[in-house]
Amino acid sequence: MTIAHLLEDFTVDPMAAGRLQLIDEDTLEERRLAAFEQGYAAGWEDAVAAQATEDDRVVSGLAKTLEDLSFTYHEALAQMAVSLRPLFQGLVGTVLPDALNRSFGHHIVEQLNDMASEDIAQPALLVVPKGAGKALQPILDRDFSLPVQLIEEASLPPGQASLRIGQAERDIDCNRLLASISEAMDTYIHQASEGLDHG
User: Which domain of life is it from (predicted)?
Assistant: First the structure.
């Protein structure tokens, strides 16, 4: 057994008839162009596939980053809301009641002016809590041009008043306003803390 079948046979003349095929220049050029076109098309397809893969990777990475940023933003917002709870409680418990108390008289004058413009010929009646008349009378004399009958009512709690001009009547209730603000703040903080607990 020999290994001759595995080795190339140099005894055969490559120029012998039937072994050698000659092609003309045009055919050779056509084959070169066809090979070039085939290689170019394959390279283009590879480049398009690589670009699509890169685009998918970039879009996926961007989406993940935006998702992380959104979560971080909402988490920070929730933590901030929860940490502001003492400030909100201080506002509702101290600052707002004091501000409403100081602006109580001006708010009453504003309401009286609004009501008087609708029914100017009727007398004005203002019912306020016991002890509030002394502070309100100078404001009414200074800021309201029509005479106002001021009555103190012991049953009215502080921060409330009743205005009447003719048949029109309006109630002012600063305590209800404060309770409404307090409830809104508590709801906001509760929702923010639940969002923080549940991620």
Answer: Bacteria
Point out the residues of the chain with pLDDT beneath 50. Answer: none
Name all domains of the chain by residue range, CATH numbers in brackets.
Answer: 102-185 (3.30.2320)
Query: Quick check: 156 and 147 in contact, CB under 8 A?
Result: no
Reported in sequence order, the residue ranges of the chain that DSSP labels E, i.e. its strands, are 124-129, 148-153, 160-165, 168-173
CB-hemisphere CA count at 13 Å for 183?
6
What's this model's pTM, rounded to 2 decimal places?
Answer: 0.45
Q: What angle do CA 147, 120, 167 make, to 5 degrees?
A: 95
Give the alpha-carbon dihedral of 72, 78, 79, 80, to 10 degrees: 110
Q: In 84-173, which ranges are continuous DSSP H helix? A: 85-90, 96-118, 133-143
- Give per-residue pLDDT as tens, 119-160: 666 777 888 888 888 888 888 777 777 777 888 888 888 888
